[in-house]
Amino acid sequence: MRWDELSREEAEEHLAELVAWLPEAVERLAVDVGSAVVLDGSRESLEPLCRWVIGQPNTGGVLAPDAPAPPWYRYQAGFCAHYGVQTSLVRVIDGVAAYYAACLQLVQPARRWQVGGRDARDVGYAFYNAPVMTLGEHDAIPHFQIPTLVKRLVLPERPDDRDPPRLQRLYDNATGRSRPGYPEPVGFEVLEIGPRSFHVQMPETLEEDLGDAFDTLDERVAAIPGVERVVWEDREVLLVDGPIDRATLARRLPAAILG
To answer: Which of 17, 227, 18 has the alpha carbon at shortest distance from 217?
Structure first.
């Protein structure tokens, strides 16, 4: 099945299913990676993550049509079958795509998941009905981009396929860092200020970006596993206490931002 074969209603349902799936996919990746990479949502974490991906096995066989699978897999099953992407590598793709999306959400909180294309069929848009992360005219399509990237890293066909900085370049293109004169994106920053205590610094535009959801952001952050107390220190800083480390708090923030 292809995304552009869905009705608009079906595409919206798939998008909701995928977005709900992402936080657990990020957590599974964190378990798999362990101490090999600090998954703190930063640009700097992406190249070490790709180096970790290169060493991952491709085992377990190609998923059967009726096997449990991530929401995006049903639309990428043909790609995976064609290139021999097996069960273990599907799990890697799932985690890396979800984590990449979380990294974009942290640095650009105004970026939103939506169904690709506009209200009427947009014949010129390659990702019509696909889940896209949009910000103005700049779309990111993790569940199209990451399967190919991971496949190249683990199952290279050319010597230059194993290119660990590739995901950083994808990030730079999505966030505008690769465009001369483009302003440096300003997103969330998590600072450890003491044992079990953190400042979550927010961009000045966040209240405008989130609208009414901004006023309950503290409640959503307080619901993050490992967080015990959240206090507004001012409109751009949350004090967060609890038995959670900085990297885990940072990578769990996108789900709280999205609500």
So the answer is: 227
